[in-house]
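Worked problem 6 (solution included).
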Amino acid sequence: MNRIKDKVAVITGSARGIGYAIAEYFASEGAMVIILDLFPEAVDAAVQKLVSQGYKADGFTGNVTSSGEMETVFSAVVEKHKTIDILVNNAGITKDNLILRMKEEEWDAVIAVNLKGSFVCTQKAFKIMMRQRFGSIINIASVIGLMGNAGQANYAATKGGLIAFTKSCAKEFASRNIRVNAVAPGFIQTEMTAKLPPEVVESYAKAIPLGKMGLPEDVAKLCLFFASDDSEYVTGQTIAVDGGLTMY
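Solution. The predicted structure is:
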C-alpha cells in the first residue's frame, strides 16, 4: 500500500474504462489522481466517485490533440498541485474499417488522438518532470500494435508507433531520471467488449493461453509497477497484459 503516496498522477481518458481503473488503483495507493477527459460531466462523475471512497482526486477537461489546451491543463495542474510525477497516456479511440473502405478522416482521427495526443501530453509533462529530475511516463499501447489486426490498420499503426515512441522517449529522458514504459493490453473486459456476442468472446478466449479475458485491474496493476519505485531500473520496455496471447 501507498507505493505512490502523495505523487501527482495525470491519467488521460480516465473518466471510464481502463483509464478509470488505473486512476482508482493509483488513488488506492496514495496518489493524487488527475482525471483528464473530454466531457465535463463524465470527469465530474469520476472524481466524485473517487472522492466518495476517501481518495484524493481532481478533474480537468481538454482535448489531448490540442497543444494549447494541454498547455493550459498541465499548467493548471502544477499551479494547483505543485507538480506532476506520473503521466499515463491512456486516451484513445477506434474507427475500424478495412483498408479499401477506410476514409482518410477515419485514419486521421485515430492518428490524432492515439499518437499525436500522447506526443502532446508527453511533451508537456517532460517540461515539468525534467526540472525536478524525476518522473514516470506510461503509454497504453495494445497487443494490436504488436501483431496487427484486419480492419484496424489505423489503430495498429498508432499503437505500434506508440511502442517505438516509448523507446525513443526513454532514451531521451533517461539522463533526467525520467522513465518511459508501455503497457500493451490484450482482450480486456470493458464496456466496449461487454457488447460483443457471447460466441465472439468465446472465440477470443480460445486464442488466449490462460483461457479468459483480462480485467481493467490487470492493466492497472502493471501501470502501478511502472509508476512506483518498484520499477526504478526499468525503462523503454513494453509489457503485454494479454494472458499469453502474444508470447513468442
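Discussion: The chain is about 45% helix and 15% strand.
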